[in-house]
Amino acid sequence: MENFSIDLENTTHMAISGQSGSGKSYLVRYFLPYLLSMGDLTLIDPKADDLLLWAKSDQCTVLRRGTGRTPTVEYPNLLAKTGTFLEEVSEVLAHEVSIMLKREDTYSKTGERPFGHRFIVIDELLALTQGGDKKTVDKFFASLSSLALLGRSAKIHLVLISQRFSSEAMPTSIRDQLQAVFQLGPITRNTTQFLFPDFDSEGVIPPRGKGTGICQVQ
């Protein structure tokens, strides 16, 4: 990552895409300590895998499938453990939307933004919504869209991770709000069609190694 930097004051949302085993979790773990040092961090890990292992020793909120929330949750209105994982995630995003609206109200009254950064990292975005009922999926995407479209002024950031970012994974309106995108693993027309639709991938061969690929920062 030498000579590479991301200005989080101007880069609100990020996406990391790649096939299984391409190093998505490896790359996001590189970012996590920096995000945690800058503000509040919420990890949503459907796999209860790599991100959960990293988070065990750090002060952040974690949601993982099957076993509820850990270690401390500041959201008193979340569902009980009998609710589905997607429902629980939707409640967390709805809570972040309420924080965003309060911050916007503060800014409209004072003209100032005395806010800390808030980062929401969602792993396996495509798998998260598979099999969910339409009402819950719609609620999830409604909150995600609000955060994507309006989060910048409230300093709320999304870091989205998925094997692909097709319309099944998320609406185009959200994808259009991504300022930093990463494609890991093989670079072909098929793998780059969603995050890099205008990119000519012919002849592009990333360096060998875990978590390597191409990126674009607006």
In brief:
This protein has about 220 residues and is an alpha/beta fold.
* Classification by helices and strands: alpha/beta
- Show unreliable segments: 67-82
Amino- and carboxy-terminal Cα gap: 17 Å
Strand fraction equals 15-25%
Cα gyration radius (Å) = 17 Å
Query: Helix fraction?
Result: 25-40%
Number of helices: 7
> Which sequence of strands runs across the widest sheet?
4-3-2-5-6-1-7-8
- Major β-sheet profile: 8 strands, mixed
Order of helices and strands: EHEHEEHEHHEHEHE
Structure characterization notes:
Helices cover 35% and strands 20% of the residues. It has 218 residues and is of the alpha/beta class. The protein has an eight-stranded mixed sheet with strand order 4-3-2-5-6-1-7-8, sandwiched between helices. Helix 2 (50-55) links the parallel strand 2 (39-45) and strand 3 (61-64). Helix 3 (85-110) packs parallel to helix 5 (134-150). The chain starts with 12 loop residues before the first strand and ends with a strand. Residues 67-82 have low confidence and may be disordered.
